[in-house]
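# nightly structure sweep
# worker-07 picked up a monomer target from the shared queue
# config: single-sequence mode, recycle default, output format = structure tokens
# input follows
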Amino acid sequence: ENNECVGVRVLGEAGEATIHADAVVCAAGHSADDVYDALEAAGAKLEAKPVAVGFRVEHPQSLVNGLAYGDLACRVVTGNSRTDKANLLRHPTDEALSRDSEALLPVAAYRLAADVGDHSIYSFCMCPGGQVVPALTKPSEMVVNGMSYSRRHSLFANAALVVSVATDDPCLDQTKGARRVLAFQRSLERKAALLGGGDYVCPVQRLTDFVDKKAPRQRPPPASSYRLGVREASLHDGLLPDPLADALRAAATGAFERSMPGFVGDDAILHGVETRTSAPLRVVRNAECESVSLKNLYPCGEGAGYAGGIVSAAVDGLRVAR
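# output follows
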């Protein structure tokens, strides 16, 4: 009321209810489009924010172990018979190793980054011994993320492989205003859903085919940890704008392959798309963490555009609370 937040209106089984408050903290997640709609309708000022978009790349964990440890990769033991057998097939040893053995090595992880022109390309949220999982919020979209099991004992390792998108990037429709980055994210997700064919099927492509701009070949689909089904698709052809796709190719075949020889290979599978690395817009606030246009509203955390992960969101929550 009168550019001042006086509470929240909620819907429940008993119907609509209004909760009055002297201060309202809004700490939504970064995919809460309906919250952005409500905030904008109430008068909160929004602004576009840079993001990074791309794919989730998956390798056999045994390959990543070898790239990290070389001849010592045989010393990675998870306790999962299939995973440990696959690791020993790639890295044979005469030693009898178990989870109780001394001098074992942790399941290997990696972190990669490079700059290509105006874009930064990097790995993000690397999940050793993990799984690619769906992260969509609508059936008409396809978005993936990754997770690791507590024992890191999956056959696979995955990480986001993304390229930065600035708020003035030519690939954005500037007529969309504060929502231009959000609109770009959702357009990629709808394209990916069409490539997957629906039913939460994830479109995939071998990294070698992506960098060579080759259509999928007639052979069995690649192995993947994604459990709802995968479909080979030409992720190189029109999914990402050419400047973003070219930057990813240059980083993968250049800096990343130099750092980890074998990173680009038929065993590396791209899953499309990874777009929600952070919020695509920011709910503008002042130095006291209060909305600049809606008094008594305190935007907070990742969905408000002030954090980029679990820990930073928690820290921002402490800041707002104080």
